[in-house]
Amino acid sequence: MFNVGQQSTNKVRVQTVSDAAAHSVAMLVARDLNFKAYTNRAMVANQIAIAQMVGLASWAHMLDHAATNFSYVTQAFGWIPVAGQILVAIGQVLSRGATIIENAISRAAPLIVRAQEILIDALSVAQVTFHLATLAMARETFTSVVSQSDSDIDTAALASNGVFWGSFVRTWEGQQERYQAQQRGNNSNPARENRARLEEFRRVTENSGDRFVGDPLARSDRRYRSYNWLPAIGPYPIAQVRMRKYGGSDLMPGVTSGNRDNYNWTAMDSVGFEVRTCCRSFGRWRSWNEMLPFGWGAAHALVSNSPFFNYNAHRRSNKPNGDSRWGNGTWALSWTTSVGAGQYGRNNLASSNGLRPFYDLQQRGFVRDDQLNVQVLLLKRANNVRTHNRILAENGGRVQPRFDVEERGGMAGNTMATLAKAGVYFSRDHARRRDGQREYGNLYNPYWQVHLLPSTNAERTAALAFAQVRI
């Protein structure tokens, strides 16, 4: 009974250590994946910060032109007693204030953009550093957990087990890939896959913006920094006039100085008067058309060595600057935007490296809960289990043959073996998403977790075969 109790106790202990070791190594993997997700999101956040500064610089130029033009308008009414003088004073104050704002933003924006670029580079490098450190820590963690839990356990079982450890590392490495911008003209399969993933990263980045930058996922009337400065007025059904503000920031295609396809931020803002007449059909108003430009501005953070952004090259792309519809060639304020593109086409705040190399899962869609798992096989020799015979022998005694319950065999093969399996899986509560949809595994959100898994028959058979070899 004593021997059976000792063996049962040690069996439970070794199984617990196996579970702890497998779970600890899997936790490092989940932490690595979550770190990549956090840093991907951090790179997105810093890209949006660049977009904010590019948009703010564009908006400041537009505001300065609008305020200057407003001061010119107020001067035309200076002949009116009292009221005219008040209007002129208001126009001058607004013009000077807008100029001060523009000067401050024009000085600060390039510095902030460069700082954000440095942070994005650091985040991209941190992904590689943390990944390599995790590979080293995984082996050390396993050895530490086992040795500190029970020093009599044979840790060589996992160290030499290519079936389990090697398979796990290959699966872990094979589940993810580092994607980056590709050389222009390279149409190999890996290059096309890299371009597709970079485009996904671009969409995630753009969709993470707010209304000022441009939020394509928001309602159509709240997607960009576009709104009426003055509401539509005029006699129905003759004509109506309004003062409309357009603006937005876009992550547009560009080519780096190293001839790689990447993306750069560009922004444009405009304000002007529009007019529409009646009627197209059944009393419906015709489309708004530009009548008089009032303010314009643009700014960029370009990936090329050239400081010039060619707006005309993107007129036919489906990439509008906000609600201004520059991309599809039907921008209502076409005159105003042409002036802005001509005057500020070279307003490059700072050189950019575009979207940096990043990690993402190779597999798209559903990733099985047991697809990324680590298995641990531990062995403990019979001479490390304190049975009745061992205790007597340690104290100089000997068991008489008639009382030797181990005479005909004790522990099978004089070794006990335990197998543990832990899996890394992605799980996000549906209620946490605004759309209520299920989210599959990805490296954009840090919801990677760990749980213990039952071993399959094939895995137990392989473990038994390996244990027999070790015995």
Flag low-confidence runs: 318-332
Strand content: 15-25%
Shape: elongated
Mean pLDDT: 82
> Tally the helices: what do you get?
8
The spatial strand order of the largest sheet comes to 2-3-4-5
Compute the CA-based radius of gyration.
34 Å
Largest beta-sheet characterization: 4 strands, antiparallel
List the secondary-structure elements in sequence, H or E: HHHHEHEEEEHEEHEEH
Describe the model.
By secondary structure, this protein is an alpha+beta fold. A 4-stranded antiparallel β-sheet has the order 2-3-4-5, sandwiched between helices. A hairpin with a 5-residue loop joins strand 3 and strand 4 (261-277). The longest helix is centred in the N-terminal third of the chain and has 74 residues, at 2-75. It has 8 helices and 9 strands.
Short description:
This protein is of the alpha+beta class and 471 residues long. 44% of the residues lie in helices and 19% in strands. The chain has helices at 2-75, 83-149, 156-159, 162-174, 189-206, 334-344, 388-394, 457-470; strands at residues 176-179, 227-233, 239-255, 261-277, 289-301, 358-361, 372-381, 415-426, 448-452.
